[in-house]
Amino acid sequence: MAPKDVDYSLYLVTDNTPAILGDRDLVSVVQAAVQGGATIVQLRDKTSDTGDLVRIAKELHQVTKPAGVPLLINDRVDVALASGVEGVHIGQDDLDYKTTRKILGPEAIIGVTANSLEEALIAARDGADYLGLGAVFATPTKENTKSIPGTAGIQHILTRLAEEKLDVKTVGIGGINAKNAQRVLYQSASATKKLDGIAVVSAIMAAENPEEAAEDLEMLIKIPPPFAKSIAKSALTLSDIQTKVPAIIAKVAAKKPLCHNMTNLVVQNFAANVALAVGCSPIMSNNGLEAADLAALGGSLVINMGTTTTDMRANHLTALAAYNAVGGPAIFDPVGAGATQERRNGVKALMAGGYFDIIKGNENEIRTVSGAAGVKQHGVDSGTSQLSREERIALVKTTAQREKNVILMTGATDFISDGERTFAVSNGHELLGEITGSGCTLGTTIAGIVAVERKDKLLGALAGVLMYEIAAERAAKRGDVKGPGTFVPAFIDELYNIRQESVAGDGSWAQAAKVEIV
Ligand code: 3NM
Description:
Elements (H helix, E strand, L loop, with lengths): L9 E4 L4 H4 L4 H11 L3 E4 L6 H15 L6 E4 L2 H7 L3 E4 L6 H8 L4 E6 L2 H10 L3 E5 L15 H14 L5 E5 L7 H8 L8 E4 L1 H4 L4 H11 L17 H18 L2 E5 L5 H11 L2 E4 L6 H5 L4 E5 L5 H17 L3 E4 L7 H13 L4 E4 L1 H8 L18 H15 L2 E4 L4 E4 L4 E4 L12 H13 L6 H21 L6 H20 L11 E3 L1
Helix pairs in contact: 2-3, 2-10, 3-4, 6-7, 7-8, 11-19, 11-20, 12-18, 12-20, 14-15, 16-17, 18-19, 19-20
This protein binds ligand 3NM.
């Protein structure tokens, strides 16, 4: 098989260590995986003697060759030659690519591990057939991985390879399994290049039934993840927004969607009241084990990272996986993301652990989400802005493009983008900054609305921002509001009033929207 015709979609890397293989027979496990759909196999064995390696390679080849599945040997060009297999996979510390090619000839399949952009560019320019890009996620299978670029890092490498017109095949490796395979392929893809496959060790080698595990993965990687199904990015004018938003609010009131809040202990009561006023049915559950049952009810999830703990993070990840599995909208509110190392770690873990349809935060929080270095946030407050208006617009847009979601950066002017459409919203009132939980409960509002407005999540989020901020403006104007204390109940009343007006077909409240297309 010519190297260019190889199917890299489900790349199995073997592992004979007891922690992964157990007491099973390597050849039988690989045979099952090939039957299940593995499209290419690499023999990775760091301990066996050369003679044994050649014997194992020949045995594996008897299984892979009749199935038309190429077999490669990790590191060992001599073993590849002696066993007559289709090629090798070399790491950065092994024999270099050019020498390997000279030894094995033009027909051999030669892949190279690349843990950074530089390594990827060099290997691709040298002419490698494919690159193993990783580690996508931290993995106990290979603890000494040099870096963990994540899906965002892989996407950057793919973009640069395409820019340089380097037509090399690519597979992602590291921590990939049936739970995240679709998301890895979806979120790592750039507009110009996507991964040709996923490479797995434990997801197949350690599976109770390797054939079924391979079958499962083979099926999953052919279809987009559930949360990627409904993306509609039609252009929106201000007048479209003013017409559509009240209709969305009326629909929310009619459907009363479940809004699952995993939120901090400061705002739980306030968030539940806001959700009710908006027209949702709130449930405040920080127990991840309840999430699968709740996700099945068709609502949405908001994960608010305030007052976080390690236990809570595990619950957040369990819940996120449950909503991702059914395509239920998940909103991330990375409260205080830039304030402490623990919270920065929390942001990384949550973003690596699942997909968020919408991420909402103030400037420092969104900068942290984007991976910016040196963000210093004073507590959970928004603090003074470090970025110009143009920089904020660029940040929401590029982060949304990268994450393939909606990014909302709140501030005196809010910026919201889905990577293609970007809006500035300058509604709201300064009293929102004088009460606790105003950012958090905006997250709740948006979550409730996108539970219903699933097709156009940017429009759903925009509806949430406008309802929330216009309610604040209306409340602040009321004669009974004397300050932050009296503002809170008036604000809840105005959310309720806006909902009732929308239900009655009166959308005139949305005329107050100050939205600019940017
Ligand atoms: N190479 P699992 S990560 C062999 O980053 C290997 O280059 C990696 O194992 C890299 O699928 C890795 O069990 C191990 O997470 C992948």
